[in-house]
Amino acid sequence: MRIASAALAALLLAAPTVAQPVTANDIIQKNLAARGGAAALAGLKSLRFEGKLVFPGGFELTYNEVRSGGAARVEAALQGLALVQAYDGKGGGWRINPFEGRKDAETMSDDEARSLADGASIAGVLQAAAGDGSSVTYLGREDFDGTDCHKLKVTQKDGDEFVYLIDPDSMLEVKVTETRRIRGAVQVSETELGDYEAVGGVMFPMSVETGPQGASQRQRIIIAKASANPDAPASLFAQPGK
């Protein structure tokens, strides 16, 4: 019996280890840890990003973005004129576009406001998915610039989809493909994320390139300065004249 038991133990030790399947939750948790952890993320109540917005051809505007409590305000300015887009955190989006001769704030459609709302999240769509009713599916691996990345799809309750590519070493997002329905039309955009830096202990990309899917040229946001928990009163996000 002793010999049989020893032989059985040897066989068990020699047996190949069966790899456990990767799940969406595995990747989400590793991504959360890579970004700084739940405590650090919870400690961020507001954010400010300052830098420049570069369009194809090298045309540049100064860039300023503030997020707080689910609200966001983005300003892109040139020679004293500022394009403003904002979400008030309560369902309302608005813009001021002096480059089109408009000086007063105009209300956005619900679809456009929803898009701004996603961008207003400090945690981001992927980390917010667990608490907002979205579903997350692990889609295996996909090559991105020679790296075999993890691929996750977030499907929101309204049907909008976000497909993320996660770098297997850093476990940070390197690309996201968004599929949205704006005024009944499907719009697909691609965003590449890089140059991550810690802001208040949480990692955020300082380089963001965005454009329609398949486009050869994209606009780029380059962040030069980022601040954790700046003053961000509700009035900053409220639509003027309302």
Features:
242 residues, outer membrane lipoprotein receptor (LolB), chain A, 5 helices
H/E order of the elements? HHHEEEEEEHHEEEEEEE
How far is the first residue's CA from the last residue's CA? 85 Å
Characterize the overall form.
globular
Beta-strand portion reads over 45%
What's the CATH H-level homologous superfamily? Lipoprotein localisation LolA/LolB/LppX
Helical run tally: 5
What is the alpha-carbon Rg in Å? Answer: 22 Å
Helix share of residues? 10-25%
Outline the biggest β-sheet: 13 strands, antiparallel
Structural class: alpha+beta
The strand line-up of the biggest sheet is: 6-5-4-3-2-1-13-12-11-10-9-8-7
Specify the CATH architecture.
Clam
Task: Report what the structure shows.
The chain is α+β, with helices and mostly antiparallel strands. The protein has a single domain (22-236), classed as Lipoprotein localisation LolA/LolB/LppX (outer membrane lipoprotein receptor (LolB), chain A, Clam). It has helices at 2-14, 24-35, 38-42, 110-120, 125-128, and strands spanning 46-54, 60-68, 71-78, 81-87, 93-96, 106-107, 135-144, 147-155, 161-166, 173-182, 185-199, 202-212, 219-228. The chain has a 13-stranded antiparallel β-sheet with strand order 6-5-4-3-2-1-13-12-11-10-9-8-7. The longest helix has 13 residues, at 2-14.
